[in-house]
Amino acid sequence: MNQPQSKIPQKRNFLNFKPLKWFLQSSLYPRIFQWAAVLVFAVIMVQTLAGPTSAHDNFGTAATWVLWWPLLPLFFFLFGRFWCAVCPFAWVSDLTQKIFGANRKVPNFLRKYGLWIIDITFIFITWADHIWGVVESPRGSGTLLLLILGGVMVTAMLFERRTWCRYLCFLGSLSGNYSRAGMLELRADKDVCKTCTTRDCYKGNSKAPGCPMFEFPMAMENSANCNLCGNCVKTCPHDSIKLTPRIPTSEFWSMTRARFEESFLAIVIVGIVFVQNITMLDFYQSYLKWAALTFGLSKNIAFTLIFIIAMTTPVLLLFAATAVSKRYSGETMRTAFARFGYAVIPLDLASHMAHNLFHLLAEGKSIYYTFMGLFGVHIEGPTDFVSDPTIQIMQYVLVIAGTIGSLYTAYRIAKTNYGPKKALSVAMPYLVIISIFGVLNFLTFVVRMSMRM
What we know:
21 helices; two-stranded antiparallel ribbon; mainly alpha
């Protein structure tokens, strides 16, 4: 007598909740969120370009760098790239394309090197912020927003779909990496899709356009480029799309293809977050001045050297770990680096959130003060919601959780790809490096950070 086969537990599909499914299939989604974002964005643009010149008094600066930027990593972790579905720049792209779009195919150059362009742009903007003080300057923030707006419109005039969002947005790789570590995924049922002949989820139909991010839900294996716009939910004629919860970081050890450029940015972000942390510590300016005087350099050159060292050191350390691990894995350096580079993303995400947590909780009331300033009401007072020691404890918890998440991810990547017997040997060099990254991040939160506002 045959034994009954064990059933694989099915993930809970949120689209089985009819009110949610109705909302995602209606014309309200994501428009209702887009219009709210566009309205706030318009106010921010006016404020940063024509409002008070002091960041302390400017609502645009507070809304962007004290509220939106700190909350963004948390959004990516909880909801994937949902922000990208409601982003004002995406709305501008769709509108520009509808009126002026030539709808040309995306050049092969962008398809091939788009992620590298994004990586380089992200690194450059981070460096430029410290050199020219973009974040602390309302006019600097407004100029950055204008440059992005111009790039979005030009790209939308020339190319199809959301070419900017997929291949050029400087937040693209960051949001993709963080979303892949998150708790939510949208996928299609491949058993249902293999009998489909319409491919409406990609091409679109009368209900909605095709996927704006050039993704085919049936073939999608990761969440890097899914912005949860809902188009495939609207257009699928077979009810194949599922929206399910998942174990955070599980995507990294179940993926079939690792991309070097994605892992490269993940490693570089270790350095970027470290730089962001140390440059906001109270002793940093004194140290930078000492370094500049000691070595006969300007402050900008001194910072640039620090920045380069911070970017390259994590990359070199991971290459060193890969060289050691290669003895047990037998992989090429490039393949192993690409595969295990994803393991640091949980620590990246946690450290990024910990850094931004200070600005949100120590400066959060400035959002209300500057908002009231729009109506001529001048309010002064403390900007913090909770005390510094409380914020530090929360930062420590985040960094510890991120470190543990990265350690576990590295081990699971090794176990999945090389088997249980070799897993610890292959993973050990990476576990050591990740532990070093975790300790260094932890130490940067011991000293109080300075404020932006």
